[in-house]
Amino acid sequence: MESSEIVATPVLTEAVKTTSTTPINPATPASETESSTNTTAEVTSDVPIAADSATTADEPVPGPTEAPAVETTATIFTDEHLDDMGIDVQTAHEDNALGIASLFHIFSNSTVLSADTNGNIATDHLIDGTTDFGTRGYDGDLFYIGHLSGTVLPNSFRANDSLIYVGNSVSSGWIDGHAVINRVKLTNVPADRLFKDSADTVYIDFDSYFKLLREKAATYYAQNDSAGVTYDFTNMNQRTIDVSDASTYAIENHEAHVYASIPLSVLQTPQSLYVTGVSSGGPTLIINVIDDLTDVFEGMLVNLETKTEIEVDGDLLSSKERTEFDQSVILWNFGDDHLNYNFIMAGRLSVRFLRQMQRSLAM
Questions:
Q1: Cβ contacts of residue 119 below 8 Å, gap of 6+?
Q2: Contact 75/204 with Cβ under 8 angstroms?
Q3: Where is this chain compositionally biased, Polar residues type (predicted)?
Q4: At CB < 8 A and 24+ separation, what contacts does 49-54 make?
Q5: Cα 90 to chain center, whole Å?
Q6: Closest by Cα among 106, 103, 85, 84 to 95
Q7: Least buried of 179, 250, 305, 360, by fewest C-beta within 10 Å?
Q8: Could you give the CA distance from residue 325 to residue 280 in angstroms, rounded to a whole number?
Q9: Separation of alpha carbons 183 and 172, rounded Å
Q10: φ and ψ of 181, to 5 deg
């Protein structure tokens, strides 16, 4: 998975979604991260479709029989379809540590999907979507693709009853009752679940929202550790951050967040790191990752190998696929953008990531 500014993407096989202390019902929110690099690509323009093209799901759909997608002036904040799906956008925006990014497995400026992705996506530019994506067994995934280079697979958007929005430049329509994107008929998406931005509207304004997320990241990064957070790194095989007391205090005092911090060097070793005392009904735990490395330079790629073991409600999270996301209550905040990260512990660093600036994460 590649993306230039990733927020909240799951790295367990699950798709983690939301962080508010009162769980919201997301489309398929975020959270832990996948691989990424700074990449750019030109948006593809609509391409005429040959009248004699095959009509199978794997091959281009004939243009003459393809009807255009319905255009909409709705934004994610005004979309009435989301009310029907039980998605409370305003609550996510105001109360969640990641705002509306929490509604997505991947929220990015640009994305390359290179492996099966079990979650939903909001991206300004999908550079390559030729792999299956969408949350298995989930009802009501929300997707937004502002620009599309290349194509998608017929089995993309595989959640049940997905709702899909695309940018005005994306070739889209419907045929035989199925949605079509870039001449590919989507077997999982009925025609009435695909909408296209009007010429003057974007469903998600990524520039504005990433500005807000950068401000959030800076605010979180400036916080001191919450009272009651304890650290025990004396045993390399049982390194532990315990937030039990801090979480209890936050709940009693109606505080939304608990803050902890960890040296970046701790995440470079392969031994397990245990995070305990987290509650699905409690505050969001924001872990600020502090750069303590020497001899680093701007844009340097740093390998992160630590396996994190997250205890929520007294049980360690397993690496299984999920369709319930109330246990997604940890946010890793890497602060400023002077380093790039390679998460070579694929599938291990769980929950969500937040970075201030446009830098890449790599898995």
A1: 9, 10, 15, 28, 30, 104, 105, 106, 133, 134, 135
A2: yes
A3: 16-25
A4: 49/183, 53/183
A5: 18
A6: 103
A7: 305
A8: 9
A9: 7
A10: -130, 125
Q: Kindly report the CA angle at 80 between 77 and 81, in degrees rounded to 5?
A: 110
- Residue 244 CA to residue 229 CA, distance in Å, equals 7
Compute, in degrees rounded to 10, the torsion defined by CA atoms 15, 210, 113, 317.
-20
User: What is the token pair recorded at 31?
Assistant: 């959270």
- What is the torsional sign of CA 206, 127, 1, 265? negative
Coil, strand or helix: which one is 350?
coil
**Are 329 and 284 within 8 A, CB to CB?**
yes
The CA–CA distances, whole Å, from 56 to 46, 160, 214, 247 equal: 20, 21, 44, 54
Q: For the chain, 363 residues long, give each residue's pLDDT as a single digit of tens.
A: 444 444 443 332 223 333 333 333 334 444 433 333 333 333 333 333 333 333 344 555 555 467 999 999 999 999 999 999 999 999 999 999 999 999 998 999 999 888 888 889 999 999 988 888 988 888 889 999 999 998 899 999 988 889 999 999 999 999 999 999 999 999 999 999 999 999 999 999 999 999 999 999 999 999 999 999 999 999 998 999 999 999 999 999 999 999 999 999 999 988 899 999 998 878 999 999 999 998 888 888 888 888 888 888 888 876 655 545 566 788 999 887 688 888 776 445 554 566 543 332 322
Buried b (16+ CB within 10 A) or exposed e, 35-67: bbbebeeeeeeeeebeeeeeeeeeebbbbeebe
CB 172 within 8 A of CB 69: yes
The label of the residue with tokens 């959640």 reads 159
In angstroms, the CA 276 to CA 144 distance is 35
Tokens of 209: 């929202």
Distances (CA, A) of 241 to 166, 245, 273, 274, 277: 42, 11, 8, 6, 9
